[in-house]
Amino acid sequence: MAGLRTEELTMNIGPQHPSTHGVLRLVVKVDGEIITDCDPVLGYLHRGTEKLAEDLQYTQIIPYTDRLDYVGAMANNHALVNAVEKAMDIQPTDRAEYLRVINVELNRVASHLLFLGTYLLDLGAMSPFLYAFHAREKILDLFVKICGARLTYNYMRIGGVKWDAPEGWLESVREFVQYMRDQMPMYDELVHGNEIFHNRVIGVGKMTQEEAIAYGMSGINLRSTGFNWDVRKNKPYSVYDRFDFDVPLGKTGDCYDRYWCHVREIWESLKIVEQALDQIEPGPIMAKVPKIIRVPAGEYYSGVEAMRGELGVYIVSEGKDKPYRLKLHRPSFINLQILPKLLKGNLMANMVAILGATDIVVGEVDA
Amino acid sequence: MSEENKKAPVAEKAAEETPAPVDPRVEKATTHLEIIQGKIVSEFGEAAIEEAGLKQFVPTFVIKNELYADVAEFLRTEPTLLFNYPQCMAGTDYKDYIEVYLKIHSTTHGYDVAIKARGDRDNGSVPTLSSVYPYCGWEEREIYDLLGLNFRNHPDMRRILLQDEWNGHPLRKDYVVRD
User: Fold this and answer.
1) Would you tell me how many other CB atoms lie within 10 Å of the CB of residue A59?
2) pLDDT digits (tens, 9 = 90+) for A47-90
3) Do B161 and A43 touch (CB under 8 A)?
4) What span, in angstroms and rounded, lies between the C-alpha atoms of A123 and A200?
5) Rounded to 5°, angle at Cα A169 from A164 and A173
6) Which residue of B has its CA nearest to A44?
7) How far does chain A reach from its first CA to its final CA, in angstroms?
8) Which of A71, A111, A361, B96 gets the most CB atoms within 10 Å of its CB?
9) B63 sits in which H/E element
10) Candidates B103, B134, B137; nearest CB to A301
11) What is the pLDDT of residues B13-40, one digit of tens each?
12) Are the beta carbons of B88 and A42 separated by less than 8 Å?
């Protein structure tokens, strides 16, 4: 075959492509089957949330956060209200804190189910997707009952939550926890021992702990390398210090570890929900807060553990009812940055497996 | 909350009664602030730090523009500090200058620090930290895109969210939003 002319091929993937889960474009250079370079092109879903926030009162920003990571919007609500409460020294009521935790953790289960379904779909397994969405729909039904929306909840307020749990809702959540626990072994049977799946993901897209930390990654991407960092444990906020749960860790930082951490986090979230249901007591759902929220002049940063990592809110305030500057530290944006490095030298066929395991939501990447 | 705001009422009380309880978080953060400040000053001299203070219990330093990358590298590698985990980067337009903020955590010692640098609004620049923390690569591109601040020696200084033909930088305070 000597003397055969070869050339580098530039391939365009997206912005409309099923494996990019939104509108992300990748310009990939390939040499035969091997990826030599990758340049992610972002911004197709950029709505200028940070600029818009500068013209809105703090309560008015909450619905905008729903549109960032739209499969885990409860955590986005929580990130904003938590940052404002910390800045103003407001203590939400106990019942509100428990309702927040229950909803955020249910949302985490829903988000991880979506990951499992779509990731396996990316890899060519159709049926887990249908089962995962069936269970996810049950969670979304619970959200409809408490706040009226499936995805964009606008549920939390500074100092509490908007709606109390309707009659029978907490019991339905308890039933769901049991249902989900019964379902989990089925996912394992479907996927976990599957040899084709193992061959696609084990040892693929590896990153080291030092790399992940230097790239500022967080969430499952960081934990899959074995580094124990969970904001719920390391910098406890809300009432997370009252629950007993583990932080699942990976060992090698490959796609398989990232998949397996998602599965085990579902178990841990169910554990938290159950404990919260045991501890929650009747009471008010809103603390006493000023009619117009004015954050005292200064700079504040607070983060929460969202579905994809640490979602931080950096507020610069002049003491007015609107932020002077509101920066969102978005885990999807940060976690995506390492992608070109992971792809280089890999086979083109692994591109979808690696991108899928990074678990990004483009609404959050582009803000 | 600034250091002065937190400490003022405490100081008043202490004068009239028994020593009032100082918020342990402020006390701890103040100790960290003094330690870190001492190390930076002994390495780079007094002029390296333009401002120092606590911002919501995080020691925050405004670093001299030219020394920004060197100080960051020092904070990352100095064995007693080891600030290795960048957690938030933001740029803010303060009308007279543009400020870059970076919050870093030390996974070995378990505490935080924030460093800042200021650049002119017109053709101003600050040194890139992307060689110190790869994390800063995209965040600096975002700041360049939305605030129009250049980062010296950045390997890939392009817009990241807006298209290349975009006029102006939306997060600047004087940016006119068209309907």
Assistant:
1) 18
2) 999 999 999 999 999 999 999 999 999 999 999 999 999 999 99
3) yes
4) 8
5) 120
6) B161
7) 50
8) A111
9) strand B58-63
10) B103
11) 444 556 667 788 888 889 999 999 999 9
12) no
Does residue B171 sit within a domain? no
| Pairwise CB contact (< 8 Å): B135 & A312 | no
Identify any residues that bridge with A325 across adjacent strands, giving them in sequence order.
A316
User: Shortest Cα distance from B39 to chain A (angstroms)?
Assistant: 22
Average pLDDT along chain A: 92
AA identity, residue A45: L
Looking at residue A164, what DSSP letter applies? P
- Is B102 part of a structural domain of the chain? yes
Nearest to A314 among B85, B90, B162 (CB): B90
Residues 6+ apart with CB under 8 A from A109: A139, A180, A266, A269, A270, A273
Q: B171 to chain A nearest CA, in Å?
A: 6
- Of A297, A309, A198, nearest to A254 by C-alpha is A198
Cα separation, B85 vs A218, whole angstroms:
10
Interchain proximity A337–B137, CB inside 8 Å? yes
- Three-state secondary-structure class, residue A328: strand
Closest to B84 (Cα-Cα) out of B111, B51, B52, B59: B111
- Write the ipTM: 0.91
Q: CB A337 to CB B135 under 8 A?
A: yes
Looking at the structure of chain B, the number of domains it has is: 1
Residue B156 lies in a domain: no
Q: Which residues pair with A314 in a beta bridge?
A: A301, A327
Amino acid at A193: G
Closest Cβ opposite residue B170 in set A51, A87, A300? A51
Which residues in A lie closer than 8 A to residue B114 (C-beta atoms)?
Answer: 301
- Give residue B63's domain range: 3-7+22-124
Q: Does A9-366 carry CATH code 3.40.30.10? A: no
Q: Where are the alpha helices (DSSP H) in chain A?
A: 49-53, 58-65, 73-88, 94-122, 127-147, 169-187, 195-201, 209-214, 220-223, 231-234, 255-279, 331-336, 339-343, 351-358, 362-366
- Name the minimum distance, in Å, from the CA of A70 to any CA of chain B: 19
Among A87, A218, A337, beta carbon nearest to B138: A337
Q: Is B160 on the interface with A (CB under 8 A)?
A: yes
Residue A87 with chain B: CB contacts under 8 Å: 1, 56
Neighbouring C-beta atoms of residue B158, cutoff 10 Å: 10
